[in-house]
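Lab notebook page, bench 4
Experiment: in silico fold of construct C2
Operator: M.H.
Input chain length: 640 residues
Purpose: comparison with the prior construct
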Amino acid sequence: MNLRAKLFPASVVACAATLAIVCFAQYRRGARVADDALRAESSHRATLFARGIEAELRAREREADELADDPRLRDFTRATGESTRAKSNDAPRQAEVGPTYSGSVEAADVPEQLRERVASIFERGGDSFASLTIVAAPNVRVRFEPQRAGGAGPVVKAGDALAGGHELDALIEAAAADAGRREISTGVVAQGIVFYVVPAPRADAEHGGKVATLVAELKLDEVCERAAGSLIDANAQRTESQLVALDREGRIVYHTNDALRFQTAERVMTNFGVVVNQMTAGREGIESYDGADSARWLAAYAPVRSLDLSVAVATNASAATAGLRREGRLYVALSALLALVIAALVFTREARSARRIERIALAAQAVADGDLERRLEVGENDRTRVIAESFNLMTERLRAHIRREAEGRQFQAFMRLSAMLTHDLKNAITGLSMLVSNMEQQFHREEFRADAVTSLRDATDNLRGIVARLSKPVETLSGEYRSALKPVDLSAVVRRVVETTAGQTSFHEIEMRLPEGLEVVADIDRLERVFENLVINALDAMGTSEGRLTVEGGREGEDSVFVTVADTGAGMTPEFISAKLFRPFATTKKQGLGLGLYTCREIVEAHGGSIEVESRPSSGTRFRVVLPSGPVSLPRDSKT
């Protein structure tokens, strides 16, 4: 089987495998993200459900507490107590009360304003209140129940009847025993009722110190219904979800399916067992379980802190991720189809272009072997026409570039020689200019005239050297023009350079700390050029402002010596030092060539040494030259 025959199945397999892996990875990632999001949402909704129940209970408690403090209730209890005492001696009137009343207050005796107050509480609480019972006197019980079937005002009854067979006196005694609290709750009973006993603000010595009491009966399923209202609305578009509330006995106080309320969870929700155990234990968390239809369900549960109650939000995870699974299978199928299409296109394109590409490759190889005259001829409809034309253009430009490069090397050599000689002439002229400038003020001094003659002699010798180098350009550019290496007292060389270049200035402070005997084996002319450049640069950096030039030297270990040249000029930025300082033709001077420090570094490194710089803007600059104290051999290709 040749390469083309192998290409098609290999392309199919590679494309299909790659796309399948990508699709599967995306599917798994999407499934994890969806599951994490579902868990987070379920936990959040369970927490909201529990907080909503607590908020509803607090609202109803607050309403009962406000009613207990209402002046209308206080006036009613006081009037009822006085009426009861007045009627206690009237036997005929007491007989008229009948067996229905446990006290002497009839329904008609309740003031209209108190009825309206109770009716407003029932209206705000919806169906949450089962009743409100007022114990106005030891034997007077007035019970208010919400009106049914659209009747006006609350239903007013008398008696001790409470839900679940609870005794009213027992609840009141429990409230009195807990004197330190404003209200107490007996918890959840079998019928899903929670009681709140609120002492009214009245203690009457004539009634044995008893306290008028308000007993509120709340239907927990209705409280949960109100708390779950917003969660059910927000869940209207979901496939399957259930909200459940259980008491500590495992009874269903609330369920989104009304038929399951007030039944035992273990009996009617058999697959919910692991969650029921966690809820009845008062724990908080999230569990997954298998539903009746073998679907995977996710239940987040949380306790209601103020009651022996726990709530859960159960979501059908299988239904929630069904769309994601369908999309995953669809993407895998599409990836396989796309792999086939891509493989077919690759095979077709390769078959048509293989020969043309091979021809271009052979031509490129010929050019690489030196045949720069090779050209490619292509047809008008050839798909590789653009490549062939680019190839022909490349060879033409390559031939032209080679010609220009040869000419450029010649011109570059000339420019390099000119730049180097110009730089040396500039330094020599700078020294002479400074000497001439000082002559106008110092020429009357005999020691100055002697130093000036010496400086002129040195400058003349330097100019002769430059002219000699100009007469031998080949040797100058190749680095073969150099004096013989010999031992040199580096301190003497540096002193002579400083005195010649800066010794006669009148406004810069010059400080030299150079010990005797700093001997190195070097080319003295080149070293003078290095320190001449450094001193001139330091003077230029300080300009016309008064400054200090500090030159010091010493030994660096056993085998090296060092000389530093420091100024108090403007300094340099770290960016300029790292990017431009030692690069040729890079300078901050308006008339500089940018070859001085480049040449200095080349000369110092040719002698086996190094040059370092420390500088900060507005803090001056310090150059440090380190040279070996032993003999060195200058390389043949060192640049001057």
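Observations: The chain has a mean pLDDT of 75. The chain is about 50% helix and 20% strand.
Next step: discuss at group meeting.
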